[in-house]
Automatic annotation (TrEMBL):
It is an enzyme of class 2 (transferase). It comes from Hevea brasiliensis (Para rubber tree). Residues 249-598 form the Protein kinase domain. GO terms for cellular component: plasma membrane. It comes from the Eukaryota. This is non-specific serine/threonine protein kinase. Its EC number is 2.7.11.1. SMART domains: PAN_AP (SM00473), S_TKc (SM00220). GO terms for molecular function: ATP binding; protein serine/threonine kinase activity. One of its GO terms (biological process) is recognition of pollen. The keyword Signal applies. Residues 130-167 form the EGF-like domain.
Length: 637
C-alpha cells in the first residue's frame, strides 16, 4: 500500500507540512515556490512565490476546494480534509493501488499531479495549476472579477463597483482594481444584495466563518453589520455555514460551470437597477418558457414512440393520404369504444396508429398549434378518452425525409452538457464491466443502439447477448466465429477474431465521435474521401479542424470548444489501430474527469478512399451488413 500525501499544520506541535520547488531542474535545493495551506479565515490551499500568493485553490466546501470545480472524489484519488483543534490538513491517497502518482511544485511555478504510465515508461501530467490567466491570483485587482472568453481574459467590476483608474482599465491594465460607486449609502439606507453566479469566492483568509448558518440567516447577519460587503455559502449542503467579507474582495473569477454564488452588498439605486434588469430577463424568459413548454410537450411525446413514425409514414404513403405522424404516451384500454380507431395489424400494441378522421377530430381540425419546425407544424390534440397527444404534420414543401425528421425530433434534447454526461456515464459503465464487476466482462457489441437512455436521460448499457466473461488474470481470447457490428468492431477482432478489453475501448471511441458529430461511423457516401466517420475525424484533426465535426444542432448554442476537442482526442486515442496504444477504461475515466494533458493520438484503424476511388484497406472474406444490425464473419482465425 503506497503512503498518502499530506499537507497542513499540526496545531499541537507546530509542524507545517508543505511542498517546495527545486532551485532549478538540476539543483534540488529549496526554490522560491511553495504549495501550502493558509490557516487564516477559512483555510485554503495556496501556491506561493516567496510570500506572495500566485494561485489559490479556494476554501474547502465539504467535497472539494471551491476554486477547483472539476475536482472529483472517489474515482481515482481519495481526498480527505481535516480542520479541528488538533490540525488543519489535506490528504491524498490513490484509490487504485496499481496507479503511481506524485504531486510536485516545479521550478517554473506550477503545481503538477503526475501519473506513471508503465507501458510508455514516463510520467504524464494528470493535472496542473495555474491553468489560465484568471487563475493568477488577484489579476483583476481589488473588487474585480475575472472572466475567461476563448482563452482571453476580461476584467469586470463586481456589482456596486467601478474601475479605480478608468483610463488604465481601458488600456487593459486592471491592477488598480475597482472602488465603490457610492460610499455613503450602504448603511440602513435601502441597500440589499445582488447575486453573482458561478464564481470562485474571494480570498477567504480575510473572511469571517459563521458556522451552521443557512444563507438567509447569513444575509440577515451581513445586513446588520454596515461593514459587511459580501457573503457566500461555506459548504455545498444547506446549513453548513457561510462566509462574510468586510472590506475589499480579492481573486474572484467566473467559472463556466461548477462555481458558487456570491452575494454583493449594493446601494438602493444599484439594487433597483439590477431588479429592473431581472424583471426584463424574467419577462423574456417567460415568453421563452411558454414556447419551450409547448414544443417540449410535442417533442417528448414524439420521442417516446419514434418507431411508429416510420411505420405510419410508409402506410400513409401507400394509401395516398396526407403525410402525418402521431404518437401518444399511452394506449387506449382494450374495451374502449374507440379501440377500433387503432390499426394494430402486424404492429406492437404499445405503438398505436390512428386514422385521419380520428386525428382531425382530436386536433379540432388542426386548430391548436403548438409550434413549427423545419418539417411543418405541431398541434395539440385530445382523444375521446381525455388522453392528450401531439401531432406533427409534415409540410409538402419541406423536401425532407423520414431520416431528417427523426434527427430533428431527438437531437434537440441533447445539448453538449447532456452529451458529455452520456459519454462519461457510458465510460463508467464499461469500466465497471471491465474492472469492478465480480467477473471481467467484455461486451463485444458496444454501439449507439445498445446505449439506452432512461427518463432522466441517464445512459444504460444493454444487450449482453455477445458478451464474454474473462477470468481475473485473462487478457485476451480468440474466437472462430467473429461477431460484432459493422463500424464499431476493432480491427484485430474483425480481421483475426482477437478480442479483449481494448476491443470494447475501440467501440467506445467510435461511440464518442458519433455522439459529438451526430453521425454514424458508416454514414459517409461515395462522394466523401473517407468511407467512415473515423477517417473524416482523423483528417480534420491532423489539419487542426477538429471542431468541424461538431453536430450542427450544437452550433445553435454556445459550447465549450476546449472540452469538445478534448473528448475528440480521447475518442481518437481509443480507436488507435494497435490495441496496446489504446488506453484502458480506467485511464479514459481519468481523462474525462480531469484536465490532465493527453498524449497525441496515433493513426486510427479506418478505411479511406484513394484518388482512383479504391479502398486502401481490404478486409478478409467477411459477410457483413452496413446497417445497424449485428454481424457475424465467417472466416476468422
Amino acid at each position: 500500500m503506497l503512503p498518502n500525501l499530506k499537507l497542513g499544520l499540526d496545531r499541537r506541535t507546530g509542524l507545517n507540512r508543505f511542498l517546495t520547488s527545486w532551485k532549478s531542474s538540476d539543483d534540488p535545493g529549496a526554490g522560491n515556490f511553495s504549495h501550502r495551506i493558509n490557516p487564516e479565515g477559512s483555510p485554503q490551499l495556496f501556491l506561493y512565490e516567496g510570500q506572495v500568493p500566485k494561485w489559490r485553490a479556494g476554501h474547502w466546501n465539504g467535497i472539494r476546494w471551491s476554486g477547483m470545480p472539476r475536482m472529483k472524489r472517489g474515482l481515482i484519488f481519495n481526498v480527505s480534509f481535516v480542520n479541528n483543534e488538533n490540525e488543519i490538513s489535506i490528504e491524498w491517497g490513490v484509490a487504485n493501488g496499481s496507479i503511481l502518482a506524485r504531486l510536485v511544485v516545479n521550478e517554473s511555478g506550477s503545481v503538477q499531479l503526475l501519473t506513471w504510465h508503465e507501458d510508455q515508461g514516463r510520467w504524464d501530467e494528470f493535472w496542473f495549476a495555474p491553468k489560465d490567466q484568471c487563475d493568477n491570483y488577484g489579476i483583476c485587482g481589488s473588487n474585480g472579477n475575472c472572466v475567461l472568453n476563448d482563452d482571453e481574459f476580461d476584467c469586470t467590476c463586481l456589482p456596486g463597483y467601478r474601475p479605480k483608474s478608468p483610463q488604465k482599465w481601458y488600456l487593459k491594465d486592471e491592477s488598480d482594481g475597482c472602488v465603490r460607486k457610492n460610499q455613503t449609502a450602504l448603511c440602513r439606507n435601502g441597500e440589499g444584495f445582488v447575486e453573482v453566479a458561478n464564481v470562485k469566492a474571494p480570498d477567504a483568509s480575510v473572511a469571517r466563518v459563521l458556522a451552521n448558518l443557512d444563507l438567509k440567516a447569513c444575509k440577515d447577519e451581513c445586513l446588520r453589520n454596515c461593514s459587511c460587503t459580501a457573503y457566500a455559502s461555506l459548504g455545498v449542503t444547506e446549513g453548513s455555514g457561510c462566509l462574510t467579507w468586510y472590506g475589499d474582495l480579492l481573486d474572484t473569477r467566473v467559472f463556466i460551470e461548477g462555481g458558487q454564488s456570491l452575494y454583493m452588498r449594493v446601494d438602493a439605486l444599484e439594487l433597483a437597477q439590477y431588479a429592473n434588469k431581472r424583471k426584463d430577463l424574467l419577462a423574456r424568459k417567460g415568453i421563452l418558457v411558454i414556447m419551450i413548454l409547448s414544443v417540449a410537450t410535442a417533442v417528448s411525446s414524439v420521442v417516446l414512440f419514434s418507431y411508429c413514425l416510420v411505420r405510419r409514414q410508409k402506410r400513409l404513403s401507400q394509401n395516398g393520404q396526407h403525410e402525418m405522424f402521431i404518437c401518444s404516451s399511452s394506449t387506449l384500454p382494450d374495451d374502449h369504444p374507440r379501440e377500433k380507431e387503432l390499426d394494430r395489424s402486424g404492429s406492437d400494441p404499445h405503438l398505436p396508429f390512428f386514422d385521419i378522421d380520428t386525428i382531425v377530430e382530436a386536433t379540432d381540425n388542426f386548430s391548436n398549434k403548438l409550434g413549427e419546425g423545419g418539417f411543418g407544424s405541431v398541434y395539440k390534440g385530445q382523444l375521446s378518452n381525455g388522453q392528450e397527444i401531439a401531432v406533427k404534420r409534415l409540410s409538402k414543401q419541406s423536401g425532407q425525409g423520414i431520416k431528417e425528421f427523426m434527427n430533428e425530433v431527438q437531437k434537440q434534447l441533447l445539448d453538449w452538457k447532456k452529451r458529455f454526461e452520456i459519454i462519461f456515464g457510458v465510460a463508467r459503465g464499461v469500466l465497471y464491466l471491465h474492472q469492478d464487476s465480480r467477473l471481467k466482462i467484455i461486451h463485444r457489441d458496444l454501439k449507439a443502439s445498445n446505449i439506452l437512455l432512461d427518463a432522466s436521460m441517464e445512459p444504460k448499457i444493454s444487450d449482453f447477448g455477445l458478451a464474454k466473461l474473462f477470468m481475473e488474470h485473462q487478457i485476451e481470447a480468440i474466437t472462430k466465429q467473429v461477431v460484432g457490428t459493422y463500424g464499431y468492431m476493432s480491427p484485430e477482432c474483425a480481421m483475426d477474431g482477437l478480442y479483449s478489453v481494448k476491443s470494447d475501448v475501440f467501440s467506445y471511441g467510435v461511440l464518442i465521435l458519433e455522439i459529438i458529430s451526430g453521425k454514424k461511423n458508416t454514414e459517409y457516401g461515395k462522394e466523401s474521401p473517407s468511407l467512415n466517420l473515423i477517417g473524416n475525424v482523423w483528417k480534420l484533426w491532423r489539419e487542426g479542424k477538429g471542431l468541424d465535426i461538431v453536430d450542427y444542432s450544437l452550433l445553435e448554442h454556445s459550447y465549450p470548444c476546449e472540452e469538445i476537442l478534448r473528448c475528440i482526442q480521447i475518442g481518437l486515442l481509443c480507436i488507435q489501430e494497435h490495441p496496446a496504444d489504446r488506453p484502458a477504461m480506467l485511464e479514459v475515466v481519468f481523462m474525462l474527469g480531469n484536465e490532465t494533458s493527453l498524449p497525441p493520438p496515433k493513426k486510427p484503424a479506418f478505411v479511406f478512399r484513394t484518388q482512383n476511388g479504391q479502398e486502401s484497406l481490404i478486409t478478409r472474406g467477411e459477410v457483413c451488413s452496413i446497417n445497424d444490425c449485428t454481424i457475424t464473419m465467417i472466416e476468422g482465425r
